From TrEMBL:
Keywords: Heme, Iron, Metal-binding, Oxidoreductase, Oxygen transport, Transport. The keyword Transit peptide does not apply. This is Flavohemoprotein. Residues 1-134 form the Globin domain. The gene is hmp_2.
Length: 168
């Protein structure tokens, strides 16, 4: 991710922010159209989830120029996601759905350079999240093999639905 990419992402997000509700809605519609099986791991009522996604996107964009801080945020986000049944191979689906939503709903659309910058930013994000998820999977499996319940990462919300999906 280059300084130019950061500038393109920051500027286009400033335009997108006015349409953030439509973007979040379109993002999940696009994700579930691409991968209908993922609908079941999300809450039935998606309003709060959409707000959380918008909040996290805003933080990521705001801190994008401070890679070390963002790295910690993304590492923690990735570890929580292991307990939501998210897998590293889902990350490209999320990236595509996000770019789809931004292109469709950002006032004025995205220029080619802006779209490319979002893809570069998401590749960078995935490059941090995927290994953190893999590491957290290992930690969870090690705990299970030792016959103990894994300690959840701070902030992870584990619902009955997710417990049922994991069979625990
Ligand atoms: C850059 C990628 C992602 C971002 C920014 C993101 C953002 C978020 C945020 C902010 C939450 C709220 C809870 C929390 O912060 O722990 C959340 C929850 C969740 N995310 Fe993600 N997520 C990403 C990737 C994924 C992927 C790849 C999946 C799997 C397909 C996924 C599925 C979920 C699920 C199932 C929940 C829990 C919903 C609930 O039961 O409340 N996310 N995500």
């Amino acid at each position: 991710m280059t300084p130019d990419d950061i500038q393109h992402v920051t500027r286009s997000f400033a335009r997108a922010f006015a349409a953030k509700r439509d973007i979040a809605q379109r993002f999940y519609d696009s994700l579930f159209a691409r991968a209908p099986h993922l609908r079941a791991i999300f809450p039935e009522e998606m309003g709060l989830q959409q707000e959380k996604l918008n909040g996290t996107l805003a933080t990521l964009v705001r801190e994008m120029h401070r890679a070390p801080i963002l790295g910690e945020t993304l590492d923690a986000l990735a570890r929580r996601h292991v307990y939501y049944e998210a897998l590293p191979e889902h990350l490209p689906l999320i990236g595509d759905a996000l770019v789809d939503a931004l292109v469709a709903e950002t006032p004025g659309g995205l220029s080619r350079a802006e779209e490319a910058a979002w893809r570069a930013a998401f590749a960078w994000i995935s490059g941090i999240m995927a290994p953190a998820m893999a590491d957290e999977f290992e930690r969870r499996e090690a705990a299970r093999s030792a016959g103990v319940a894994p300690t959840l990462p701070p902030g992870a919300i584990v619902r009955d639905r997710q417990r049922a999906a994991r069979g625990s």
